[in-house]
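wait is this the right file?? whatever heres the structure
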């Protein structure tokens, strides 16, 4: 019911703000304790684990029936399937590489899904004090002020966020991927990357950028940002232009259908070349 949602929202907002202090206080520390997960670029720090435990214990003591899908727990216990039950999808630090380098673009990303649909999305960068929030059907906000996607409709006028250079199905910098990236660099107004999929999505939501795509991500990287983009009037699709896959491991976000069309055409062509190799 509505009053429950208000309670969930107020509770998670308070917990996220407190958790943000942990991120902020540790960001400037140059000697972060790092562990490697699947590769030398797949990182986890003591702060990731501390924030995740803080959020899960705070939420589960308030809402004992709620379920969790969270990055560092999943790394240890395997991924949990999303069910119809109220489920908090948590990335304790999105942009861990940034955090390790004290590059000030990391955030806490947290979303509540009910019946497999996003109800609440919060992306909080406590270093730059950017709090992005959205609730289903109620719009998207940055520090309490309503945000909207840009009016950009053509690729040549668009600022495109190209996050990592991989492209399905290889996630490697092959000649086909290099060709795609260079065609986007020359074919767009310019390109950027913040190093956090959640913050990249929020940049599309507030009109700072016009489109963004990313392959090889996980559901917790985009669960909150996706709702924020949609509530800001933007589109989130599969990179081929169809509906977003429920596993959420690839995304295209844009301010307009025309940008989705222009980008998905190029992304599909590259993917087809890689598949036919
Ligand atoms: C990563 C960031 C990055 C994206 C990677 C993610 P993490 O998340 O969102 O921008 O390109 O695919 O894994 O590991 O910092 O939570």
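ok assuming it is, sequence goes like this
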């Amino acid at each position: 019911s509505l009053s429950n949602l208000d309670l969930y929202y107020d509770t998670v907002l308070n917990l996220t703000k407190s958790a943000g202090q942990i991120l902020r206080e540790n960001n400037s520390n140059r000697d972060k304790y790092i562990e490697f997960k699947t590769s030398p670029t797949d990182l986890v720090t003591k702060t990731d684990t501390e924030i995740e435990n803080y959020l899960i214990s705070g939420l589960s003591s308030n809402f004992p029936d709620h379920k969790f899908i969270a990055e560092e727990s999943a790394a240890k216990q395997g991924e949990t399937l999303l069910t119809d039950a109220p489920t908090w999808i948590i990335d304790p630090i999105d942009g861990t590489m940034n955090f390790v380098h004290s590059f000030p673009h990391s955030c806490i990303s947290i979303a509540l899904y009910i019946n497999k649909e996003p109800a609440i999305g919060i992306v909080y960068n406590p270093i730059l004090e950017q709090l992005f929030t959205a609730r289903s059907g109620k719009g998207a906000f940055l520090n309490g002020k309503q945000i909207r996607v840009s009016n950009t409709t053509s690729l040549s006028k668009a600022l495109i966020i190209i996050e990592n250079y991989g492209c399905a199905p290889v996630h490697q910098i092959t000649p086909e991927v290099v060709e795609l990236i260079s065609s986007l660099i020359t074919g767009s107004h310019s390109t950027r990357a913040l190093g956090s999929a959640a913050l990249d999505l929020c940049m599309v939501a507030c009109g700072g950028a016009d489109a963004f795509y990313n392959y090889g991500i996980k559901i917790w990287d985009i669960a909150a940002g996706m709702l924020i983009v949609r509530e800001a009037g933007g589109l989130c699709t599969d990179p081929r232009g169809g509906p977003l896959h429920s596993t959420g491991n690839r995304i295209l976000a844009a301010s307009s259908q025309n940008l989705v069309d222009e980008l998905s055409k190029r992304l599909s062509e590259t993917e087809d070349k890689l598949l036919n190799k």
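The longest helix spans residues 2-27. so i think its the right one actually
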